[in-house]
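Review box. Two proteins, two foldings.
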Amino acid sequence: MEKYDIEAYLNGELSAAERQAFEAELAANPALAKEVALLRQLTEDLGDAMLWERVSTARALPDGRAKWQWWTFAGAVLLFGGLLWYSLGLPPGKTEPPAAPAGQSAAPELPPAELQPIATDTPSTVPKNAPTSDRPIAINTPPAGLQPPLHPAPQLRGNNSADTTRKALLDALWYTDYPPKGASFTGQFAEVDALLQQGDFSKSYARLQLLERKNPTNDTLFFLKGYCLLERGKGGEALRYFDKIENETPFGKELLEWYRGLALLLLGDDSQAKKVFSVISISPAHSFKQQAQRALEILE
């Protein structure tokens, strides 16, 4: 079956005879059935996540602006749906599902599994090297020895979204380390882990939203969602999930301390962020001591 046939089937646009023929082919073609299931799930996940986020934003807006935002959202959903079908649908005349990326295998359907205990390896640190007064805060080329983050600082969300000075400050001190050293996410979290490592925070967020609604919550979900929200620039929500974690040891207490400081910066709460960084900076063996020292110099 062709890509447009799958779209028409999921949208309920086939005639009775066409639908019967399509479902007969689904029963005889496991590869096609898997592709249809994947597209249906992705559409539902992304739609749920976009709706949840949009509702949260609309509640804080005046009535007139909220209505305008809802019309804009409806148009965005239609456009996004078309792009999703185009990027994920099968090429005409082919029924094989997309191959897994090199070195990766499809995540098996397993019962919920917690994060395995991890080694307390020390992540790479940053030398104490703040920008000078005649250089911009956002340094395009990090100082010698400064390891760049896995992903760049996120775009700010909410009231600070247009604050270019704030964004430049984040660019200068942002550092994230994922996955935690020695971590192994399995079961229902394996797909989310793969998406986070690829930097696909939109799909990661959609999958985590679904898992949070359909399964009992636990520390692993709280950590993954907190990290995903942090990279999406939503400091307040990231901090809320980090604070729900009861056992911080498997994820690294020092890593979570640093992430809490970054979340506070996203919120614009520099005074509390500086308190967090100050504690880290005077801890002799803290894994993020030098990052914290540099952050304090930039924030002065």
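Next protein.
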Amino acid sequence: MNPVRESIRHVVENSRHVAVNQEGIESFVRDFDKNKLNHWLSISPFGINSLTDTEKLNFVLVLDSISFSYWGCPKWEIDYHGKIYDGAQGMMAALGRAVESGKPILDTNYLAGMGRKGLEGILRGNIEIPLLDERQRILNEAGLALVGKYGGDCSKLLEKADGSAIRFVELLIEGFPSFKDSATYSGKEIYFNKRAQLLASDLHHAFEGKGYGRFYDIEELTALADYKLPQVLRRWNVLAYSPELKAKILGKADLIEGSSEEVEIRASTIHAVELIKEMLKKKIPDITAAKINDYLWLEGQKKLPGGEPYHRVRTTKY
């Protein structure tokens, strides 16, 4: 059982700032284009399939360890082979650039001892990426944990999970503190586990459900509560915000991490995707929350004129 799915019920039942609109869900399901179902790694500017299986495993681990909080003004961007990328695509490009230039970014010992200057060079762009120090700390943590507990071999972590995506998520949270993603709401702990679930989902896709990506319970993963998904769900009128919260987001005010407003946005996003999944199963039996998540995220990459901004929280969680 995924604790994320269970814990968010308390938030949804008591939410004061965010509501899930049933009519919006029905409209979304009615217009859902299954031909657009794809994984977010499909738009990676760096071809990860050129890597060996071990390199690919480590690449996805590094990527999902530090893929968060890209927003800003100006936005962090990088030039990769003559094209400009930002956000998660920029991170994929930056790591790919490092691999191509011979930087040992996929070596767990290198990660364990990586200094700020080393990571700054790898992620160099038009400006310094937000939370650079935190990204360095997280990579050091990952490298040290993998070297200390698994002999530097990430595949041993997967072996310990024994084919369970949920157990893999648990092991990440237990052994890598930066993957812990929860909040307190009305005295109860609410779990989101965004990046840990993302890593399980990405490995499943990158290895086509085989080898390092074999998880028998992949359908247990929930949507990944970030800042792009709720923006897209608002576009479809699936989520509705209180006037006070809407005014803050339109004004691009920073929300406080762990505030009731932020927790309600994240919990309602996951709940809405669960409702969408149940309705979609009638015409797409093998649909999962993870697939809907990627559908929404890819839709969120479209820059639409007049589109409302996403909520802003400076955090390493998403």
